[in-house]
Amino acid sequence: MAPQFAPMQNDLILRTARGEKVERPPMWVMRQAGRYLPEYHEAKGSYDFFECCRSPEIASTLTLQPILRYSGLVDAAIIFSDILVIPQAMGMEVIMKDKVGPHFPSPLRSPEDPQYQQLLDKNVSVQDELQYVYDAITMTRQKLEGRVPLIGFCGAPWTLLSYMVEGGGSKMFVQVKTWIYKYPQQSKKLLQKIAELCVEYLALQVVAGAQMIQVFDSWAGELSPSTFKVFSLPYLEYIADNLPRRLIELKQDVVSMTVFAKGAWYALDDLCDTKYNVIGLDWLHAPAEAYKTARAKGKVVQGNADPGILYGSKESITAVVKEMVEGFGRGKQGWIANLGHGITPFVKPDDLKFYFKEIHRLTRD
């Protein structure tokens, strides 16, 4: 039986993502549930990061923390999880190293690595392997009681492949560039496998209660314009083309889709030609120019202040908000206010609160 949820009290972000005219821009920020909040550390306790992801109770608690702290200011929750749950579901070990980040003890080194064929051949059930994510989504929707919509997400195939072969974050991306330039066909086979899993994973998040989805291509900017069109864009398109079909098969309403290709400023036109409803922008975009490009193709934009602005003075924050408000049509249509990437460590929660309040203040009629 499908889960039952309370009626929505605030559907502003859903209306905006559909392209409707709205009273003000909705707002949320990537990584809004996280370590910059003191309550995050209290709830996390001694559990490691992935233990928190695998506990629906803890994950739902962490998801709600910014909604409670910034009540009346934030218009969406995003489920507390991680993009690397898909490689885990595929059978790869991923651990979170303190002060280092995600780490694959046995990364995929070449197509001769026995893992490669095993990954391609494995019949992965994201329904079984990632049930804890769906449980967390359902529990969170119930705890939200209709206050704001809940966003689900996944990592983009290119970004996931990068982690799987690099073994973690990277500055040089030696391994993944070796793959795409030395083993392009083998890379494409794995990217396609990941894309197919992303579609099913996102669809099941919607079944569980997610009301929008976002695809994070965090390492898109490591690709040149031409290589982006070969090793990232086709797989982003595959997700956008096939997720709505899969939702219809599952007798679900089709939800709005956001793509965020960080660093791929050169791909804005191409991304606006996809079936994504919302195009996430990082801080490399000038608001007015990006807004003009996206609106000409009927797309909504999301973003895009440099997260580093939150380390600055109130005057600096206000100046950036003013540029966004003026560039993004004053938030009356086609803009979801956010940062240009996830919130960074050591940000003071009250400075983020000021950022939200300035967006509210400057977009009032």
Q: What's the short version?
A:
Belongs to the uroporphyrinogen decarboxylase family. It is built from 17 helices and 9 strands.
Question: Can you tell me about this structure?
Answer:
This protein is an alpha/beta fold. The chain has a domain at 31-285: TIM Barrel, CATH 3.20.20. It is built from 17 helices and nine strands. It has a seven-stranded parallel beta sheet. Strands 2-3 form a two-stranded antiparallel sheet. Helix 8 runs parallel beside helix 11 (184-208) and helix 11 runs parallel beside helix 13 (233-249). The mean pLDDT is 97. It catalyses: uroporphyrinogen I + 4 H(+) = coproporphyrinogen I + 4 CO2; uroporphyrinogen III + 4 H(+) = coproporphyrinogen III + 4 CO2. Pathway: Porphyrin-containing compound metabolism; protoporphyrin-IX biosynthesis; coproporphyrinogen-III from 5-aminolevulinate: step 4/4. One of its GO terms (cellular component) is cytosol.
Distinctive features:
365 residues, alpha/beta, TIM Barrel, seven-stranded parallel sheet, two-stranded antiparallel sheet, 9 strands, uroporphyrinogen decarboxylase activity, lyase, decarboxylase, Uroporphyrinogen_deCOase
